[in-house]
């Protein structure tokens, strides 16, 4: 039993949840298509009447059913339709249900418009416009402005009517830029209404364009309304255009017959009666009086049935003219009296309506001014709110930017101070290291200079010893050998002397070194008739290689001074040239030239062996070239 009760309780809770979900979903579904608040369902009239009196139906649903009942019953009983629409409006207003109130006001205004109570219809539509503007329901403005424009056209104010219709079309274009199945109904009705407005102003070309656009929509979407009105409008345009050619009148008849067929399938007797009147007038233009009589008589019966006095008056007048044209003057007189009676009644009603229309126009203008002021105030408030929000955002952005700059500046300042401290500490260490390095370099320079000085002294001492030993040698050959060794020592000592005197201890300028070496040899070896010419480029060479280089020059020049010149006359030319990273050394004399055995071919010569060995040490090449007068020795090093 407990399980059964639990199962039943769960089922009841589930059903209650589903009912609540349905009630909550109905307003959400209302957003799908306006002006209908709920999905369109063609309920029968008796079903709608039971639903609006059912106490279990939610109030929001009852608003919808009352509005649908007013729309359904409006084709047969406009008074009851107005009653149901007014009841739906009051219930929606009591509930605060804005969408339901807009729906009921739209139905109530349409009903008043069908009843011919244009003053009441305008007031209802204006109330709906103000409500739509204030609540932001832009889509409802499309049918509201369209119906206000149609009322203005009916009441004889085509300019105002055209303005309302253009405003409706502008709102529709803003909400639905492309024609889709959801908005095809509004586009079709807008095109038809705009065509009617241009037709009332006798702008037949513009009216024809919009009527054809409405028919094109009906061809693309079979559910598009307004096809009958578009055909009727095209028929009236061809009927009104001048001149009345047979082709135009036939076209007018085609479109009027099409409109009549569509209206007959929808069982709207009032629209059929109006279309029949237009068709009877067309037959009058075509002088088809028999057809005119039958169509006008049919229109008169329908007008009496639906209670439309203007249609009844026009139909009676057409029947009278058709009867007179057919020769039935007594019948024509009777229908003419009916038409005059209806016309007098309409004149009285028209006077009262004219006064009401003047009042309505005044109220409409006042209401439009209030709407304009309200719109301006709303836009001004919105602009002020936007400006205030903009300033707030600018202030927030400014404060955020300043805060960010402050944070970044603080971080950068801290880092800068840290970097400066680190840089100062590094500079101190670098200064100490530089001082230590400078002190060490100074000590090393002093040490190197001392070494160079001692080397010079030692080489000089050795040269003096060799010179002393030469003086004690009785053999001239041995003395000659000692002179050569002493010259070699002098060349090496001169390199160290230049290093000792120079700022750079690592390299020697060969032009200065060679000039001093050549001058020393010339003063020691040359006879009075021998001259020395030099052309020396400032070539740098490290100390070790400079020593080898000096020994090579010493050997070649000494050999030239000793063996080249026979008559103690001649010239010795020494050249030193840059060649890329290397050098070119040329030593030329104008003496007696080489012997037949050659210069380099004497392998037992110590000088020649020394020159060849030192040339290899310098990674250079030596060549001895006989000249027409004298000999030329070339030493080249290329990198």
Automatic annotation (TrEMBL):
* Tree of life domain: Bacteria
Query: Where, if anywhere, are coiled coils annotated?
Result: 416-450
Q: What class of enzyme is it?
A: transferase
One Pfam annotation, family name? HisKA_2
Signal peptide as annotated in the record: none
The residues covered by the Signal transduction histidine kinase subgroup 2 dimerisation and phosphoacceptor domain are: 450-520
User: What is the name of the protein in this document?
Assistant: histidine kinase
């Amino acid at each position: 039993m407990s399980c059964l009760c639990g199962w039943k309780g769960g089922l009841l809770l589930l059903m209650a949840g589903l009912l609540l979900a349905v009630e909550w979903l109905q307003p959400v579904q209302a957003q799908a298509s306006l002006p209908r608040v709920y999905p369109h369902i063609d309920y029968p009239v008796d079903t709608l009447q039971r639903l609006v009196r059912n106490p279990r139906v939610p109030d929001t649903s009852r608003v919808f059913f009352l509005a649908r009942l007013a729309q359904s019953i409006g084709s047969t009983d406009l008074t009851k339709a107005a009653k149901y629409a007014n009841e739906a409006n009051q219930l929606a207003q009591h509930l605060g249900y804005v969408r339901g109130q807009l729906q009921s006001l739209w139905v109530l205004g349409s009903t008043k418009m069908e009843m011919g109570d244009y003053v009441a219809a305008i007031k209802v539509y204006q109330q709906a416009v103000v409500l739509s503007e204030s609540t932001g329901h832009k889509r409802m403005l499309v049918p509201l402005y369209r119906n206000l424009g149609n009322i203005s056209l009916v009441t004889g104010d085509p300019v105002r009517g055209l303005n309302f219709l253009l405003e409706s079309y502008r709102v529709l274009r803003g909400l639905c830029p492309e024609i889709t199945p959801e908005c095809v109904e509004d586009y079709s009705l807008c095109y038809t209404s705009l065509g009617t407005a241009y037709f009332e102003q006798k702008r037949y070309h513009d009216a024809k364009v919009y009527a054809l656009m409405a028919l094109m929509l009906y061809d693309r979407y079979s559910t598009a309304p307004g096809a009958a009105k578009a055909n009727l409008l095209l028929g009236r345009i061809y009927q009104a255009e001048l001149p009345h050619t047979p082709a135009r009148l036939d076209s007018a008849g085609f479109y009027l017959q099409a409109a009549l067929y569509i209206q007959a399938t929808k069982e709207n007797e009032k629209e059929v009666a109006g279309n029949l009147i237009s068709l009877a007038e067309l037959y009058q233009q075509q002088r088809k009086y028999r057809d005119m009589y039958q169509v006008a008589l049919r229109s008169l019966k329908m007008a009496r049935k639906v209670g439309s006095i203007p249609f009844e008056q026009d139909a009676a007048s057409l029947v009278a003219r058709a009867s007179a044209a057919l020769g039935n003057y007594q019948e024509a007189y009777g229908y003419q009296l009916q038409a005059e009676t209806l016309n007098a009644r309409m004149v009285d009603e028209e006077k009262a309506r004219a006064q009401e229309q003047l009042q309505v126009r005044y109220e409409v203008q006042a209401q439009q001014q209030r709407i304009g002021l309200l719109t301006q105030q709303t836009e001004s408030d919105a602009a002020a709110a936007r400006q205030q929000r903009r300033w707030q955002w600018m202030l927030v952005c400014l404060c955020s930017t300043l805060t960010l700059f402050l944070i970044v500046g603080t971080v950068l300042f801290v880092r800068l101070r840290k970097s400066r401290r680190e840089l100062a500490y590094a500079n101190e260490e670098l200064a100490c290291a530089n001082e230590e390095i400078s002190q060490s370099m100074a000590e090393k320079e002093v040490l190197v200079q001392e070494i160079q000085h001692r080397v010079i002294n030692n080489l000089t001492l050795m040269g003096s010893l060799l010179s002393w030993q030469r003086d004690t040698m009785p053999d001239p050959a041995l003395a000659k050998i000692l002179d050569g060794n002493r010259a070699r020592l002098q060349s090496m000592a001169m390199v160290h002397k230049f290093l000792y005197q120079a700022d750079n201890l690592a390299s020697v300028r060969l032009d200065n070194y060679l000039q001093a070496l050549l001058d020393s040899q010339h003063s020691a070896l040359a006879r009075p008739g021998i001259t020395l010419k030099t052309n020396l480029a400032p070539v740098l060479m490290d100390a070790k290689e400079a020593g080898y280089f000096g020994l090579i020059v010493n050997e070649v020049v000494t050999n030239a001074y000793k063996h080249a010149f026979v008559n103690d006359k001649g010239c010795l030319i020494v050249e030193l040239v840059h060649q890329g990273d290397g050098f070119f050394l040329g030593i030329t004399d104008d003496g007696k030239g080489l012997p037949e055995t050659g210069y380099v071919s004497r392998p037992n010569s110590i000088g020649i062996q020394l020159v060849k060995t030192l040339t290899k040490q310098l990674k250079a090449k030596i060549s001895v070239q006989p000249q027409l007068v004298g000999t030329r020795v070339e030493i080249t090093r290329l990198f």
